[in-house]
């Protein structure tokens, strides 16, 4: 970008490019409230199919239930805060652009990296669970799981590249299928005659060494691991809601983000509250119960096996995979836009934000994020012994994603508080009914969740990986990226607000 005019602000240098720069980085507007609702629910719905249930092994049913209540409170505070910030700052950057206005370029970058870790690793977790479902359905060897991952990435990155209308259309269809499967599962379980909550869901006790043990007759304690079990289960409860906050990344593809974004976010959140608590109550009340589901990679498939037998369960599981597919597809959308936004503004290399000439989708960003996620999976797979370490791999990836998410939520809560304090006169088409208390609850609960992630050796292994990711990103930005920023829409808005020259 030699020869372009420059601007300096907050320890960074901005290049002010000509119109041709942005002409190569154009997105199309398409989404209304229904599409945004489907994107939000679709991004999260896989959490009802796999991952959340691992919390039973560390908290029992009671610990998982109370942990889910606390995490739900955190997400309500977060989503209401985002519902206020997103129409006030309607840029594709989402959390990064909010933090950029509140805390300057370094604050925006640090928040953007946390979000990047979350969005690149979350689909890796989801496609891992797709692999476990497909392995169980088809009977292929565990060693073939990386093939399922690769096929998943190729298909759904391809669909995302083909255009925003197709991308949202696929999201709507698979999200509705996933919700229909959940409803069918709930009805089947309740009507099966095998639903026994006290015996099955309450069948976890604490052994002499503090580890979970099975109680054959159930009727165990509500909190077998005490208060610690609640906090230990919280990272897994996150999986019932994680990624609903991605919706602001679609702001520049929303027809009317100031009107539709708050509605889409909150309708999605209330849908997920309903499905999350229903799955938490109904799934473990089937035979084998919480103890068995605490180590399962496919809890709904296990439930269908109990209700319909192994043969029919495989058929139904093919439909159940739709829930995982919905999230996989929707979060691929998210990291494509997140990488695109940070690249367009110069925080990441500029070439990553070039969009497809015909479809106007961030195809380079989509490919780069997919390659990174797949490589992380393969490295963990082979260094930990492949299929023999399946549960470890899923847990490590899940907790790396959750740690990135928790740090992002902490920063977004602080961002909301800073925007309310420093920029009270920014136009806010929607105001959070939770307001400042809701943002503080988000910050506090996120900090508690992070603290308990750090106490478990399994979590700490993943966090080392996250720390390395952060270190490399900060070295890149400090040494090079901060000198190559671009005056993109969110950066211009932030600079003018901080200079006091924007219309407010």
Automatic annotation (TrEMBL):
Pfam families (alphabetical): AA_permease_2 (PF13520)
Topological relation to the membrane, as annotated: Multi-pass membrane protein
Transmembrane segments: 31-52, 58-78, 119-137, 143-161, 168-191, 225-244, 265-286, 306-335, 364-383, 389-411, 432-452, 458-479
Highest rank taxon of the organism: Bacteria
Keyword Lipid metabolism (UniProt): no
MF-aspect GO terms: transmembrane transporter activity
Compartments where found: Cell membrane
GO cellular component terms listed in the entry, alphabetical order: plasma membrane
Segments forming a coiled coil: none
Official protein name in the record: Amino acid permease
